[in-house]
Amino acid sequence: MKVLFLGGAGMIGSAAAAEAVARGADVTIVTRSEPARPVAGGVRALRADVRDTAALRAVLGGEEFDAVVNWVGFTPDDVRDHPGLFTGSAGQYVFISTCSVFGRPVPQLPITESSPRRQPVFGYPRDKIACELLLEEAHRSSDFPLTIVRPFHTYDRTVIPVLAGWTAIERMRSGKPVVVHGDGTSLWSLTHSRDFARAFFPLLGNGHAVGESVNVVSGDILTWDQIHLTLAAAAGVRSPVLRHRSSESIAALLPGWGDVLEHDFRHSMLFDTSKLRSLVPGFAPAVSFAEGAREVLAHYEADPVLRVINQDLDHAFDRLLADR
What we know:
Layout lengths: L1 E5 L4 H12 L3 E6 L12 E4 L5 H8 L6 E4 L5 H4 L2 H5 L6 E4 L26 H20 L3 E6 L1 E3 L10 H8 L4 E4 L5 E2 L1 E3 H8 L12 E4 L5 E2 H11 L7 E4 L1 H7 L4 H8 L8 H6 L9 H13 L9 H12 L2
Parallel strand pairs: 1-2, 1-4, 2-3, 4-5, 5-6, 6-11, 7-10, 8-13
Antiparallel strand pairs: 9-12
């Protein structure tokens, strides 16, 4: 199978490329510059700005692909020319969107692919919705072979999946309390990039996925307290101290966290994975968060440059805890 990645040299895309190569696909990646992450062996790398239609057409030279995956379509202008460019030369066009397109609070749990899309606050998912709508219209009007894939909160060894990052780890290790928003019981889902790649690859060249949107998530359900406790265990902390504060009080001291907490993290996000499992029979996440957290800690322990405490954040936590 011939697969073209437009972009795809980031955390999720590089994992997907490695999985595709391991499964025998012929993978080409087009990036504007040298990828920040190593490209899997066997991948053909081309240089062009994928948002420049003329440059992209020139570098591809009319080549045909079984599947084209757009990892870097962020605004409607980024994808506007793609139906004309790839209709007839691609068996499938996969647009990488995000589960952040779903409105908060979600009117009904679990979230399915048909849950309402609405995002009035964050520009990133708002623009992703606009891209989805443009490409869906092309599918309806001109049989553009579209599949929409929506990851959620995906991580690998390089990502500590809490807002406080390494500062939270150091506070737990030193016996200092770590602030968790709300009461710590809202539900969240984390997906390791390797699990995403394992679920994603079978969607490529899959005719049953054309015309569909698919939420590619692990289905693993965690509370925010569990996420922090699992990271603590990986860091060797047996009895971490968690303290809960309202999203509003946290945002008062950390304004940069306000929108994320108010419109995202405070809401439970529980996903129905029925469609994914019907298109990828037998898929189940293989990397537990306990295993993933150990990978994260090992990666950070191996590089002192990564182990940076945010002093402003550290002081803000102390102030939040002193208020009660």
